Amino acid sequence: MTLPDTHNKTRFVAEYPINASPKILFPYLSTASGLARWFCDDVRYVEGQRFNFIWDRENHYAEIATQRLNKAVRFVFLDDRRQPIADANSLEFSLDYSEVTDEVYLRVVDYSPTVEAEEQQEMWESLVYKLREQVGG
């Protein structure tokens, strides 16, 4: 589901079942080494809860805005000088467990510049496929 907003950004929200426990899955969502294995070309821990996400040799700095162990992490992207900006891009991963289906769901909330909804859906499906390969789920 993609909801347009007034700043040419969209809030993409999707849930994906993943056959792995939150304890196994969470480090892949919240650590530089875990994220580098599936999310982008490389991720480096900078300092003070800040990370450098590298795509196509370009640096994208972000800091952890909120984190709940084995439940959720939210990254807010910074400017080139690693400073907070208004209406910043953000990315949130949260894990939910369904006792009814005995499944873990990864919820992705991607707030970033607008791209075609189908393209964004395909990108996330591909990324989650890579994540599933890493965790065996």
TrEMBL record:
Pfam families, sorted: START_2
Superkingdom in the source lineage: Bacteria
START-like domain boundaries: 8-136
InterPro entries from the UniProt entry: START-like_dom_sf, START_2
Name assigned to this protein: START-like domain-containing protein
Organism: Hymenobacter aranciens
